[in-house]
Specification:
Blueprint: H1 15-19, H2 23-35, H3 44-51, H4 69-82, E1 87-91, E2 100-105, E3 123-129, E4 132-138, H5 142-145, E5 151-154, E6 164-170, E7 179-186, E8 191-197, E9 205-207, E10 213-220, E11 223-232, E12 235-245
Antiparallel strand pairs: 1-2, 2-3, 3-4, 5-6, 6-7, 7-8, 9-10, 10-11, 11-12
Helix pairs in contact: 2-4
Bound molecules: calcium ion (CA) (2 copies).
The site of one calcium ion has 5 residues, from loops.
């Protein structure tokens, strides 16, 4: 008689699956990767859990070398979800009437560093919204900018049911810090990320007047540039830039700092 193994070849570990699990369930999921290759467990709860699965066969010859690259990637991804997120929240981003779980995960562990220069070249964070995720590069560490802000849910266009997730990146320890802003728009197909770079030497800011526009304000002394973007479907499309000059700039005592 030939026994056919009908269990899944490996534990499922998409971001969407993992985001829905509790800490206890994540621990089981992580260990399931090893259990499917026959590992035994000394923890009584894990041992009894897997003993109850019809696919499980403890194998005294088990070795971690049996793990595939996909298995190791799965364990790493479960580990990522077991860490406290950099930020989490809940909002109905896609406007389907159901709240979406929002999580920002430190895929690169250096993001938890207090050393603000650790991620100058970019550290990967993963933004998970409902069943979708997107990787983005963060250039400053949590020690520098998370904790006081800066992820928040906004509503760029109140005439549609969707909302947007906005993450501002800004160093706290410079007088005129550069800044970046990521805007995340969720559709039924994908989570889309769009990044805005501050142009001025001064901090600049974003304005969301609540009419479908996002306005990027850059102080480029003695001018102020206002660049307008309009939300079209899932994308912010550039409309143009208006430059105004600070009237004080013509005064002999006026000096642009920096
Ligand atoms: Ca939703
Ligand atoms: Ca909206």
């Amino acid at each position: 008689m030939i026994l056919l193994w009908t269990g899944l070849a490996q534990a499922t570990c998409s971001h969407a699956d993992l985001a829905a699990l509790s800490a206890a369930e994540l621990r089981v999921r992580r260990n399931e990767v090893f259990a499917r290759h026959g590992r035994s467990f000394s923890s009584a709860d894990l041992a009894s859990h897997f003993a109850a699965q019809d696919w499980y066969r403890a194998d005294p010859d088990y070795d971690d070398a049996r793990l595939s690259d996909a298995d190791r990637a799965c364990v790493a991804r479960v580990n990522l979800h077991e860490q406290p997120p950099l930020w989490q929240g809940e909002a109905d981003l896609d406007g389907d009437g159901k709240p979406d779980a929002l999580k920002v995960l430190a895929t690169d562990a250096r993001l938890g560093s207090k050393d603000d220069s650790a991620c100058e070249e970019g550290c990967t964070a993963t933004v998970v919204v409902g069943g979708h995720h997107v990787d983005v590069l963060f250039h400053w560490t949590t020690g520098a900018y998370f904790g006081t802000k800066t992820a928040k849910v906004v509503d760029i266009d109140p005439s549609d049911a969707r909302k947007e997730l906005l993450i501002e990146h800004r160093r706290q320890d410079w007088e005129d810090p550069p800044y970046l802003t990521d805007v995340f728009v969720l559709t039924s197909e994908a989570l889309n990320a769009q990044r805005f770079h501050g142009e001025g030497y001064d901090s600049g800011r974003l304005e969301i007047p609540g009419d479908g526009r996002l306005i990027q304000v850059d102080d480029v002394c003695p001018h102020t540039d206002r660049t307008t973007w309009k939300l079209v479907d899932w994308q912010l499309v550039k409309q143009g830039t208006e430059r105004t000059t600070n009237p004080g700039a013509s005064h002999p005592d006026f000096v642009c700092a920096g």
